[in-house]
Amino acid sequence: MAFCARLLRRQLVLALRRPVDIGNPLLFFAMVVALFPLGLGPAPGTLATFAPGILWIVALLANLLTADNLFRGDFDDGSLEQLLLSPQPLYTSVLAYVLSQWLVTGALLALLSPLFALMLNLAPGAIPTLVCSLLLGSGVLSLVGGIGAALTVGLRRGGMLVALLILPFYMPVLIFGSAAVQAAVIGAPAGAHLAILGAMLCLALALAPLAIGAALRISVDA
């Protein structure tokens, strides 16, 4: 665990040294949310109706924007190969990579989502559910995205391939995440949807690091 903590600290320091990697998803999120009123019209009722789906779709695409870079830098400089050869458990090492990506992308977007929700006139009572669903769902997105990133890390232009590989697995998260927010908007209980997102996160935490480790070994050996 000490090695995992040091690896997490290293990834966060590298991310802070490249602020553009943190700013790009946030800027993308803000720009796309700002464009929807132009396309749908400025009517508050219309924006409020589509706000749960809009916010979740944009969050999904913002996560997809950063998925390809998860292991790319360490693969290019040889650090990833050394990590695979080290005696440390690959499971915890992979979790450190994914956790760092989630902290600078998914968690940050979730914490800033109330601002964007107000731009789309989302009901204030649904904002806590939005934040909670994004925190849970973005964790699943980061873990699943890590599998695609590991499979394509050896390819020079694997961004589009990552999207094709993992986008179908994003759909259940999108469905239940937006449904939770929609339920909160109409005053219905959202606990069932959040519980399903939590179950998805637990399953992804158990299985995704194993799949990522195997995919990294395949990609590096190839």
From TrEMBL:
NCBIfam families: ccmB. It is a multi-pass membrane protein. The chain crosses the membrane at residues 21-40, 46-65, 94-120, 126-153, 160-186, 192-216. Required for the export of heme to the periplasm for the biogenesis of c-type cytochromes. This is Heme exporter protein B. The keyword Nucleotidyltransferase does not apply. GO terms for biological process: cytochrome c biosynthetic process; cytochrome complex assembly. Belongs to the CcmB/CycW/HelB family. Keywords: Cell inner membrane, Cell membrane, Cytochrome c-type biogenesis, Membrane, Transmembrane, Transmembrane helix, Transport. It is found in: Cell inner membrane.
